[in-house]
Design a protein that fits this description.
It is built from four helices and four strands. By secondary structure, it is α+β, with helices and mostly antiparallel strands. The protein has one domain (2-183). It has a four-stranded mixed sheet. Helix 1 packs parallel to helix 2 and helix 2 (118-144) packs antiparallel against helix 4. The termini are far apart.
Length: 195
């Protein structure tokens, strides 16, 4: 009997085109990320006094640069999958499928809040709240589907297991893309600007 362990990484990035971030730390609303463990947050600095200046800074400094397919915030998720292959003569069986998930949220951080106009600050609060709501949605989709590979791999063989992993990735990507379509990349999730 020959036993080997194989692995594959499934990776996706869900960019947000909208301006929809987190509520300020002083807000009493629960975090949209509540209930999703192990999230990693990375921030990029933005500045400006007015809403136009802040938005221009977000577009210019976003990690991807803003294009038609990139956004000012993003959620990157990776599911690493693995399995054992047990060979007995010419037969090969898959056993012990496993998956681990990592999620990184990339958001802007306003570094000059004390210099921002009232209108600019109202824009920032709405923008960050909407971005957080939207990116939490992407994180939640990844979290809720973290075991899909394990379930799908139960009936896979050694020749089909890689296809099962790729099909799992494609299905989760389709769910993420539908979420972006349904929310207009987060635009529909941005709260009203309150002054």
């Amino acid at each position: 009997m020959i036993e080997s362990f194989r692995s594959l990484a499934l990776l996706a990035v869900a960019p947000a085109l909208a301006i929809a971030p987190m509520p300020p730390a002083s807000a009493q609303a629960p975090s949209p990320f509540a209930g999703i463990p192990g999230l990693k947050f990375e921030y990029y600095d933005v500045e400006g006094r007015t809403s136009a200046e802040i938005y221009a800074s977000m577009r210019a400094r976003s990690p991807n640069g803003v294009t038609d397919v990139g956004g000012i915030a993003k959620t990157a998720w990776q599911i690493k999958v693995g399995w054992r292959e047990v060979r007995r003569g010419k037969q090969c069986e898959v056993s012990d499928p496993l998956a681990s998930l990592s999620i990184t949220i990339h958001l802007p951080r306003l570094i000059n809040q004390s210099e921002v106009s009232e209108e600019g600050l109202a824009f920032w609060r709405a923008a960050i709240a909407g971005l957080e709501i939207h990116e939490a949605g992407h994180a939640r989709i990844a979290w809720e589907h973290r075991h899909d590979f394990n379930r799908a791999a139960v009936n896979a063989g050694c020749k089909t297991i890689s296809k099962v992993a790729k099909a799992t990735q494609a299905r989760i990507d389709a769910i993420q893309n539908a979420y972006d379509r349904d929310t207009n990349h987060g635009i529909t999730q941005m709260p009203p600007i309150e002054r």
